[in-house]
User: Fold this.
Amino acid sequence: MKNLFVLAFLILSHSVFSQDSKSISQERPKLVIGIVVDQMRQEYFYRYQDRFVEGGFKRLMNEGFMMKNGHYNYIPTYTGPGHASVYTGTTPATHGIIGNDWYVRSLGRTIYCAEDSTVSGVAGSPSGGEISPRNLLSSTITDELMFATGKRSKVVGVAIKDRGAALPAGHLGDAYWYDAKTGEFMTSTYYYDELPDWAKAFNARKLPEKYLSETWETLFPLESYVQGAPDNNDFESPFIGMETPTFPYDLAALKENNGGLGLISTTPYGNTLTLDLAYAALEGEQLGKRGETDFLAVSFSSTDYIGHRFGPSSVEVEDNYLRLDRGLADFFDHLDKEIGEGEYLVFLTADHGVADVVRYMQSERVAAGSLDTRFVLTQLRGFTNQHFGEGNWILNYSNEQVFLNRSLAEEKGLSFGELQKAVADFMLRFDGIKETYTGEDLRRLEYTKGRKSLLQMGFNHKASGDVMVILEPAWLSNSVRGTTHGTGYTYDTHVPIVFYGWGIKPGSSSRYATITDIAPTLSMLLHTRLPNGASGQPIGEVLDVE
Ligand SMILES: [Zn+2]
Assistant:
């Protein structure tokens, strides 16, 4: 009797548990939209808010869950590492994308983060096509979604920049990026031997030609842009053929001397074009309508091109965000209609923030400066020749990392660690260089806090340099006009992290969170494995709000 009772209990509990787990594992949104805005600071949400429409960024802010204190947790903060880190839930130390480009000792040359000489271009021009995610050493959340559904999901990545499409789409998804020479969106043989029909039809519309026949004028009267510097100033880089960096921009006239069809990247139309392609991919692949969870990864590259040229206090950046906001509002409306409100999950983040233009900071009497790296390198070569004998001691200086000649040190019977240390110490003499760290220290010691730990999270034992250089806050290398990013300071690390839609209740938190937490949060929402190198943690506030 007792055994029977136990047996009955087992049968009952088994059926209850299996039913339960079945219903949970099948509970997923119809579609996930991953949005990375290239070079977006968190503060833009607030700075431009007055003129945002209700349905764009404000929809995410008011109806989504926002981590207001979200940061990059490694150095260097560039586009390749940024996209890789968001989608893998880990940092360059693990996923291996340590820069947009980096020097490879064994090859004696610099490689590009998404380069792959074993594949070739499909559509576009041949030079734009040797692209794949093969340098990415860990799985992405998009890969894990594919594994979780027996590859019945579809994953599509779209962006102007190839790395903005290929890294988010992961190893199992499809990716499409813009070819500046032909004005086509293209892919590579890693994905397809031929473009799908919907992408061919999209290219046949020749939208870049149409957009580049227009004039970029401000959405509102120019004098109403009061959030930053005046339109005409010495901080921004004018387009070639223009005396001043000022509205209006006659794109047809500028096209010839400013990259031809590539000019679209540095206008708001680059984002419009990216959204156009997103609509075409949704329709062409029937994303979110196939009874399985699909994933569309969109990266807006034009915010970065415009941001570099004009800086975060420019009218151009503000106008571009006002336009992107309206584009997003239309996009979400479209998704409401096609997929259903609450049936799709959105997250939005950025791949990095940006520094202010050095001259602008100086004009406001904030400490800032520009490091002349050619001067530093000349001095460094003189120093190493003098102390260790004539030779090619410095192989490469890039991404604020020095690569030293290990075999020359061995030849001369010099300890490589001593060479690293001598170079690190020497470099501290220059104004603008705040700290230096040796590769040996980063390999041997464990840093848990502050800048050292950010540096270590971006340090790959096999691929990174021998001496890492940290500049003073607000300093940039070789900066005249315009600006850049790459540091571990807050202007580069503090970015949006917001979730909206399926399974997300409205709210916000000021707790510190990192962009490596995004993919683990998605794993919990989508009931997939964590990406295989994930080091971030699911964001409890997003998942567990009542
Ligand atoms: Zn950039």
